[in-house]
């Protein structure tokens, strides 16, 4: 009897949950953080918080005013060179195609946050982020890229909805990065402008 009641309750709540969960796409550009350098001391023009962001995830309405959101994606800076680097992953040629290539930064990030609906237009919230970054070799040689340890941080997010499912916003990220076997810490704190839509 209890099992049947449990199944009945699940069947009743499934349509409600499916209506409350939506897919969300989020894009933006971020600036900030300490200037990154290589172990040999060579510096770059790339900040640890710089990125072009693209992510996808799920949003769930917890109440009429509160919603939870989880997104994951890839961020990049030095976009053209980043795409070249991605293509080289699938290439059978072990040599770099351009010995004078500029460095690029690849970042994978997952964000989880809670947003409060002030009204139909404005929403504000915050949450946590998990991120790791990899910096390409600046010389174009066969040396390996520089990887940083995965880090955890916090974020604050504010949005203006100009359509029921579209928004522009501002996001603040507070996070630090470090290399393995290196005592130096790089601030990845950044401010970003975002655009997103829910589906």
Tags for this entry?
Porin; 199 residues; 15% helix; elongated; disordered N terminus; alpha+beta; single chain; eight-stranded antiparallel β-barrel
Q: How is this structure best described in words?
A:
With 199 residues, this protein is of the alpha+beta class. It has one domain: Porin, CATH 2.40.160. It contains 2 helices and 13 strands, in the order αβββββαββββββββ. The protein has helices spanning 2-20, 79-89, and strands spanning 21-31, 35-37, 43-47, 51-61, 66-77, 105-117, 122-135, 146-147, 151-161, 166-174, 176-178, 185-187, 190-198. The strands form 3 sheets. The chain has an 8-stranded antiparallel beta barrel. A two-stranded antiparallel ribbon has the order 2-3. It has a two-stranded antiparallel ribbon with strand order 11-12. The radius of gyration is 20 Å and the shape is elongated.
* CATH domain fold name: Porin
Discrete helix count: 2
The level of helicity is 10-25%
What structural class results from the helix and strand content? alpha+beta
Radius of gyration: 20 Å
The best one-word shape is elongated
Q: Could you give a short account of the major beta sheet?
A: 8 strands, antiparallel, barrel
Count of beta strands: 13
Level-2 CATH architecture:
Beta Barrel
Query: What's the mean pLDDT score?
Result: 79
How many domains? The number is 1
């Amino acid at each position: 009897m209890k099992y049947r009641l449990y199944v009945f309750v699940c069947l009743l709540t499934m349509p409600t949950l499916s209506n409350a969960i939506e897919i969300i796409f989020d894009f933006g550009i971020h600036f900030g953080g300490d200037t990154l350098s290589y172990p040999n001391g060579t510096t770059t023009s790339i900040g640890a918080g710089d990125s072009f962001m693209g992510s996808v995830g799920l949003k769930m309405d917890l109440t009429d005013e509160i919603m939870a959101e989880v997104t994951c994606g890839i961020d990049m800076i030095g976009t053209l060179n980043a795409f070249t680097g991605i293509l080289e992953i699938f290439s059978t040629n072990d040599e770099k195609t351009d010995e004078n290539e500029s460095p690029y930064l690849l970042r994978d990030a997952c964000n989880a946050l809670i947003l409060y609906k002030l009204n139909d237009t404005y929403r504000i919230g915050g949450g946590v982020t998990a991120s790791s970054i990899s910096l390409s070799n600046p010389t174009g040689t066969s040396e390996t890229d520089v990887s940083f340890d995965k880090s955890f941080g916090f974020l604050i997010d504010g949005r203006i909805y100009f359509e029921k499912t579209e928004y522009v916003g501002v996001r603040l990220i507070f996070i630090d990065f470090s290399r393995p076997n290196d005592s130096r810490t790089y601030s990845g704190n950044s401010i970003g402008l975002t655009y997103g839509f829910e589906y």
